Hints:
Blueprint: E1 4-8, H1 15-22, E2 40-49, H2 51-55, E3 65-67, E4 70-79, H3 94-101, E5 106-112, H4 131-151, H5 154-163, H6 168-176, H7 183-192, H8 205-219, E6 222-227, H9 234-245, E7 249-252, H10 255-266, E8 270-271, E9 280-281, H11 289-306, H12 311-321, E10 324-330, E11 348-351, H13 356-363, H14 365-369, E12 371-376, E13 382-383, E14 394-399
Parallel strand pairs: 1-4, 1-5, 5-6, 6-7, 10-14
Antiparallel strand pairs: 2-4, 3-4, 8-9, 10-11, 12-13, 12-14
Amino acid sequence: MGMQIGIVGKPNVGKSTFFNAATDAHAEIANYPFTTIDANRGVMYVRKPCPCKEFNVICTPHNSKCINGTRFVPIEAIDVAGLVPDAYKGRGLGNKFLDDLSQADALIHIVDASGSTDAEGNPCGLGKYDPLTDINFLEKEITYWLNGIIKKNWESVAKRCELEDKKIESMLGEKLTGLRIKEEHISSAIKKLNLDSSKPSRWTDEELLKLSEFVRKISKPMLIAFNKADIATDEFIKKAEELQKKGYVVVLTSAECELALANAAKKGLIDYTPGSNNFKILNESELTDKQRKGLEYIRTHVLENYGSTGIQKCIDEIVKMLDLIVVYPVEDETHLKDKQNRVLPDAHFMKRGSTAKDLAYKVHTDLGDKFIRAIDARTKRVVGADHKLNDGDVIRIVADN
């Protein structure tokens, strides 16, 4: 299973609008809590420079798309049920939320920057609710949920680990593997907290809670989408700066404006590329007064103010947080083609530090098992199994028949 990004937040903050704006799917959009009950799944696209320009070829993408030399590489998005306080105790749709969340590798937390929805997601009037409260609350919910899983049968797990001389990291890794949490995440957290891994039975409840918090931060990195930024007060926009000073990655967004631009582009009214700081009206005479005013509002209040609607920026930034690179496998390093004669057909996400052999396995298990060597299409150099890949590499895998 590939990388999955969870789109999370309390009800009624523009989460489904963000999801629709970021993907090709269309979740139900309505102004009341719990519109989204089942996790919607869709595909978002990450922007990367396509090698077609550099190699001066016309590409024929298969698993991605290319617009004017920018490759849009797919990554799965899950629109998770809205979260309310005490979800970890099963309140609201708590259990459903946490089940959906367990499959995510990273989270985009949609926060209502305008402060117009209360803790439960009900409308409360512009600027009446502090958006920073939502960030603390969501982090606490996930930490407490993880803590509940870690503490289940903790004494017997810790004692068994000591008696049988097993690594606590491995035992916890097995326990949390279904949540996409790896042993290395747990090891990092234990080291960071200076916990004695040989004596886990001595760890206090407070240390276990801190461990849960560190594991959450490492295993599910979170980006804050400060949504409805175009109607937020200056005072609330400054809160985004406060968060950035604390080390958060924050992007000012307007999901509603992105969705409006995407719909106008689909109808052929405007020429617009996701992530752009402008759009071009194609047919002025076809626009109604209302549409013209709406587009002008987006241009002046969002694109000119923030440089974009922020939706594409969120997608690109979350991939940076996950430390992913994009690699292009080909079967002919001279013409950059596959067996079907498609040019630069596939673009694959790989963890930074991945090797040529890792790429072979990503393309096909047989290719990994029968790996002989790889060829870098840029330099035409032969590279070995442990050759570390770089972002944007075009690689041919040579395998035994």
